[in-house]
Design brief:
The complex is a heterodimer. By secondary structure, chain A is mainly alpha-helical. Chain A has 2 domains: 3-88, no CATH class; 104-159, no CATH class. Helices cover 75% and strands 6% of the residues of chain A. A two-stranded antiparallel ribbon of chain A has the order 2-3. In chain A, helix 1 packs antiparallel against helix 2 (34-55) and helix 2 packs antiparallel against helix 3 (62-88). Chain A starts with a helix and ends in a 5-residue tail after the last helix. Chain B is mainly alpha-helical. Chain B folds into 2 domains: 5-76, no CATH class; 80-151, no CATH class. Chain B has a two-stranded antiparallel sheet. Chain B starts with a helix and ends in a 7-residue tail after the last helix. Classes of the chains: A mainly alpha, B mainly alpha. The interface between A and B is large, with 75 and 73 residues.
Chain lengths: 164, 158
């Protein structure tokens, strides 16, 4: 391992740290828009990375380039999920309910939190982040980008033989 | 083998094993234990070799395994957001009432029951005298996520 290898080894982790820091700052500035903060912070760091890499393109081999970006994508995915889990995970929500009541019957959980609550919460979020829109009394898909994730998960479910 | 080709080969082999064990035996190998084993083997290989290509591949491969571990619950369990999206996409234009009705018929009994079962299975909660309590693991997980919420000033569904 030479010095350049060492430097390349740490660079994607440093850029991931920068991503976390930019998200942290954007959360202070725009508290209510965590999802766009999460995505735009990632895109910003990615653009900075691309600009920096293209300035040194003559000195960087293909393998270093791949490492810089692949590791950053993996780290970004892990961080995005780390942020998303405490917000929308049903399992964490149930843990919170159980923690609050310090021992609770299963039937009580169903009365406190059920499919009705979940539906209202998720629909509200979808409308707030403009994934869907309400036109008169009808609900319509507004953001077509979500279809990419929808079909990706659906395809992964199909190959794992899991029904939606 | 040069990086990133060795990394893609490792990922392909791991995904193939994961896929076959799931399809044939219904076993999800994407678990914490798998991550730890792969990490230990990687550290061992890291210490034994001086090849930057292998080290790059191992670091990236470990991250890929963690990513798959994170992704799997989303594939195995049907999340409510995905269910709602599925209803909206399949039915094009519908009223909130109709979508809610379809959602309730799909998810009413399964959604919470399934998550409660997973929490008990993963030792996040324990069942005693017909009541559900939080285990130490559950308390630790909850404290960790509370810390994340506090640090990044996130807003949860309350």
């Amino acid at each position: 391992m030479n010095k350049l290898n060492f430097l390349i080894l740490f660079l994607p982790f440093i850029s991931s740290f920068v991503y976390v820091f930019i998200f942290f700052i954007s959360q202070i500035l725009r508290k209510k828009r965590y999802l766009s903060n999460l995505i735009y912070s990632f895109i910003l760091v990615l653009i900075i990375k691309i600009i920096l890499v293209f300035n040194f393109i003559d000195y960087i081999e293909f393998k270093y380039l791949s490492f810089l970006f692949l590791v950053f994508f993996c780290n970004g995915f892990i961080f995005m999920n780390l942020i998303q889990v405490p917000i929308s995970s049903l399992q964490v929500k149930l843990l919170r309910i159980i923690h609050k009541s310090n021992g609770i019957k299963e039937s009580k959980i169903y009365s406190l939190y059920n499919a009705n609550h979940i539906f209202e919460e998720r629909l509200k979020t979808f409308i707030a982040n403009k994934t869907i829109k309400k036109e008169k009394s009808l609900i319509k898909l507004n953001n077509k980008k979500i279809l990419f994730f929808y079909y990706l998960i659906k395809y992964l479910k199909i190959i794992h033989n899991i029904k939606l | 083998m040069e990086y990133p080709f060795n990394f893609f080969v490792y990922c392909f082999i791991y995904f193939l094993i994961h896929f076959l064990t799931y399809r044939l035996f219904n076993i999800n190998i994407s678990k914490i234990l798998t991550i730890i084993i792969i990490f230990i083997v990687s550290v061992f290989l890291f210490l034994r070799t001086n090849s930057p290509d292998l080290i790059f591949a191992l670091i990236n491969f470990n991250l890929f395994v963690i990513c798959l571990y994170i992704l799997m619950p989303g594939i195995i369990n049907n999340g409510p957001a995905l269910m709602i999206l599925d209803i909206i996409i399949k039915n094009k234009l519908h009223s909130k009432k109709k979508i809610k009705l379809l959602f309730m018929s799909k998810a009413f009994s399964s959604i919470i029951k399934n998550r409660l079962k997973i929490n008990i299975k993963n030792n996040f909660t324990i069942k005693k005298n017909n009541k559900i309590f939080l285990s130490n693991k559950g308390k630790f997980t909850l404290n960790f996520f509370s810390f994340v919420i506090k640090i990044f000033k996130l807003k949860t569904y309350e």
